[in-house]
Structures are given as structure tokens and as C-alpha cells.
Design a protein that fits this description.
The structure is a homodimer of 217-residue chains.
Chain A lengths: L1 E2 L4 E8 L5 H14 L4 E2 L9 E6 L7 H25 L7 E9 L2 H13 L1 H8 L5 H9 L11 E4 L2 E5 L2 E2 L4 H8 L3 E7 L5 E8 L3 H8 L4
Parallel strand pairs in A: 2-4, 3-10, 5-9
Antiparallel strand pairs in A: 1-2, 5-10, 6-7, 6-9, 7-8
Helix pairs in contact in A: 1-2
């Protein structure tokens, strides 16, 4: 059951692989870190999110024999569920597939991604399908990571819109069309290292405000 | 000139007191920390905020002779300007005067205040004048400060709505009326220490989204 309108995520996953609880937990943590822990609709955390993975062992196949396949399948299922949660978010019209690349560590990439994903100015620009990269640059700057703007290159959809901190000539109508799709890629490269993170987030619409302002809990 | 619709704050202050630049700077920093650095409309930082304080010395009165009065007057002017900035924020209908009290340090109080002021669920509840204290409690919990819910007491307007983490019977219609005013007090006490912080913030309305989604910069 997934119902983010209640700000609640309840994920139940079942497998018939034979596996010990510690092994299964390790698989689930690794996958959660790349999926459910890399999404944000409004920056608010739920008080009761749950992800449960249960294994019956009925297949009699040991995890060790299929580890890579199992991990890949689990990654695929959780990645799909995470994207469904985000696209089903309150008032969401556009899912943004953020990719922050060439950072010194994965934590640094995630920190920058979260700063972008929490910026109301960035999210409202996306609601208007506005290829406003200045707001993205400002959110990167506000993240607290000491970044030289000359290191920042920003792609929206299929185009470079800012190269090494400087405006590029780009087809604004095409960028607007890309952002107006149900999902759009926004990619940032930072020339600092080899780490990266993928992060799913959304626009912020007037509908989101209405849903959350008009009921009392 | 104050024009937060451009996400820009340009503050020019003038005095005729006689004072050295380092003394004047010290006065300004102390006051800024309690005023301009304790406000938030949407959590986004501007790339070019400015506060300038210039002294002509023409009064021939040395700062030392009037220090307390000068500091109090500067605090009053900056406090008033800060509140005007917030109430003039994009789409703002309600200013919230947050007070976070009984913390271990001022930094801890500010950290919790910023977490509340950045929560979209809290800000949209305020837009609906909804005395939803559960969202405030969740934002305190999400701040990262390790708080025992049993230590948290929340006041909205003139009433206690949550005492030591537990719901209180309160007059919901009166709380709704308090929150529907142009400005309302929200006070949180945490039973952890003697520090505190006052912080000005706002509701988040559909109008805010429209203003920021509908133009391109």
C-alpha cells in the first residue's frame, strides 16, 4: 500500500528465496539507500514509513546462488515503487530525475541533491516548466558545500543550459517542452571527483498547497 | 528598498553618531543575528542581500556615551524592517512569530525554528489557519536534534495545544481565529535548558506558487 497523501509509505515485499535475516537486511538496506531514501516530494519526513522484506524460503534456492540477480530484481522493484510514490505525490505534475555527478563523495552529491529538491524557488519553476537554471545554481550554492560556480554544468532534458557556471545559448522552447513532460532529467556535473547520486523529486504546485491547507488532521 | 519579490533585500541604515567602523560593525552584526538572520519566507537564500549601516559622526556624540540606547534603537529599526520583509513576502497571508524556548543553546533553538519554518506541511496548515500541532511536532522531530516528545509543549495564539507531547483539550475555533489574524504567536518550550530564539516566518499559499511558477527569470 502506498498512499503518500497520508504522508505514509508502507512497503511490503515478499520473496521465496532461502536467506538468513541478517543477509536479507543487508540486501534491503543497500537497495533502500538508493531508492526510498533518494526521493522527496515536499522535504517533509513521515513519522511512520515502513519497508518490510519477508522471505519464505519455499523455493529452496539459497541467496548465495542467485545473489546478483536477487539484488538487481530487488533494486528494480524498489526503484519502480519509489518512482510511483513520487509521481503520485500531492499535486505533482512533473517528476524530476535529478543526477548530481562528479562529486567528492556520494554523501556530498546527496547533500546537494536534497538542497535542490527542497528549494521552493526551484520546485515552483519546475511547476511552470521554466528552464530556470539560476535557481538551481543558487540552491547548489545554498547547500553549504563550498563549490566554485566555474565547476558547475547543468543539463535540463537533452540540453546543456549552463556550462562551467556560465549561461549557454540553448533552445528555450525545447527545454520548456522537456520540463512539461510527466518526467524530465536534470543533470548537474561538478568537476570535483568521481562520486554521484540519483535522486527523484517533483515540482511544487498550487494544488499541493490546496490539498494540505484545506484539511485538518 | 525592500523588495522580497525579487528575493533581494537591500537595507541602508544611517546614523549621525560618532563611531569607528569596527565598533559600528560589531553593533550591526549583533542586531542582524537577531533580526534579518531570523526570518524565513520560503527557506531560499538570496544571492545578493545587503545590510549597510553608515555613520556620519555629525552629532559629535560618541557611541560610548549612548551605546545601550543606540543598540536598542538599531534593534527596533531592524526588527521592524525584518517583520515588514516577512509580511510583504510572496503570497503571504499570515506572519508567524515563532518562539523556541528552554533549549540547551541558542543555536539549537534556531535549528529547530528553521526546521519548523521550512516544513511545507506546517506552512500549508498555517495557510489554512489550521491549529495542527502534530505537523509542528513532526518538524521538531525531523530537525535532527534528539528530543524526547515528552519535553515538548506547544502554544498556538493564547492556548496550550500540546502539553509535554500529549494532546490538550483546547478551543479549536479560537485557535483557528488566532491563526487567521495577519500575525500569530507560536511558542514551543522544550525543558532542555535556558536558551531561546525568536524567529519570524510565514504561511505558504497557492498564491506563492503562482507568483513563482508563472514567470521566467
Amino acid at each position: 500500500m502506498i498512499h503518500p497523501q497520508l504522508a505514509t509509505m508502507l512497503v511490503y515485499l515478499f520473496t521465496d528465496v532461502m536467506v538468513t535475516p541478517p543477509e536479507l537486511k543487508q540486501c534491503l538496506w543497500a537497495v533502500c539507500d538508493e531508492t526510498f531514501n533518494c526521493i522527496s516530494v515536499d522535504g517533509d519526513t513521515s513519522t511512520n514509513d515502513t519497508v518490510l522484506l519477508m522471505a519464505s524460503g519455499q523455493s529452496k534456492i539459497r541467496l548465495g546462488a542467485v545473489k546478483n540477480k536477487f539484488q538487481a530484481a530487488l533494486r528494480q522493484v524498489c526503484g519502480s515503487l519509489a518512482e510511483q510514490i513520487v509521481s503520485d505525490g500531492e499535486g505533482v505534475r512533473h517528476v524530476i530525475r535529478l543526477s548530481v555527478e562528479q562529486t567528492r563523495s556520494r554523501e556530498e552529491a546527496l547533500h546537494i541533491a536534497r538542497s535542490i529538491a527542497r528549494s521552493l524557488l526551484v520546485k515552483t519553476a519546475w511547476a511552470g516548466a521554466d528552464p530556470n537554471w539560476g535557481r538551481i545554481l543558487a540552491a547548489i550554492g545554498a547547500s553549504g558545500v563550498r563549490i566554485d560556480p566555474k565547476e558547475v554544468t547543468i543539463f535540463i532534458g537533452r540540453q546543456v543550459v549552463c556550462r562551467r557556471g556560465v549561461a549557454c545559448a540553448f533552445d528555450e522552447a525545447a527545454a520548456h517542452r522537456d520540463l512539461a513532460q510527466p518526467a524530465c532529467d536534470v543533470r548537474i556535473t561538478l568537476q570535483r571527483g568521481r562520486a554521484s547520486a540519483a535522486f527523484l523529486t517533483t515540482d511544487l504546485t498550487a494544488e499541493y498547497v490546496r490539498i494540505n491547507a484545506d484539511y485538518s488532521t
